[in-house]
Design brief:
By secondary structure, this protein is an alpha+beta fold. The chain has one domain. The protein contains four helices and six strands; from the N terminus they run H-H-H-E-E-E-E-E-E-H. Helix 2 packs antiparallel against helix 3.
Length: 168
């Protein structure tokens, strides 16, 4: 019996959490996944693969990799993510209500980080220029919206953005 117990593993037996504290500008302390721990999430049982926590962990790892991207990463002179854009994206994720799935990240050639959600016929994208603001676009059949720059210095997200995100 002892041998069987030594070879069995559960999610509770995994390495300690990936939380690392970094300086913050406004909101809660920030979470970063060190590059060496990103492979940990591949080892999770299939039943946990689609969980929001794992999705968010992978998202943080991907955002962190944007900081370390090579110059000309896109073949068109693309630069790594700016630290300010990265900080703003992480701040946003810390106030994103848990009812929403983890977004899909993307990096623009100028170092600006964006996140998006897509359903069959609707799409919302939020971008972080790195100046403490964000702007977003929403597209659905018969409806298009592009916001002005909105402040990211609140503990609660902009209600217009959340209303559009609820539609995706």
């Amino acid at each position: 019996m002892a041998v069987a117990m030594e070879t069995q593993s559960t999610i509770l037996d995994q390495p300690p959490p990936y939380v690392v504290q970094i300086p913050t500008t406004k909101n809660a302390p920030k979470t970063v996944i060190p590059q060496g721990l990103t492979g940990f999430f591949v080892q999770l049982p299939p039943t946990h693969t689609n969980s929001r926590d794992v999705g968010m962990s992978r998202l943080y790892a991907k955002l962190h990799s944007y900081l370390q991207a090579d110059n000309d990463w896109d073949g068109y002179g693309g630069v790594p993510a700016t630290y300010a854009s990265w900080v703003n994206a992480v701040e946003f994720l810390h106030v994103l209500p848990i009812r929403f799935e983890a977004p899909i990240p993307m990096l623009a050639g100028d170092g600006e980080i964006s996140l998006f959600w897509k359903e069959a016929d609707s799409y919302i994208e939020i971008s972080f220029p790195g100046d403490g603001t964000f702007h977003y676009i929403y597209n659905a059949p018969g409806q298009r919206f592009a916001s002005a720059d909105l402040a990211l210095n609140e503990a609660v997200l902009h209600s217009g953005f959340l209303a559009h995100l609820d539609l995706v």
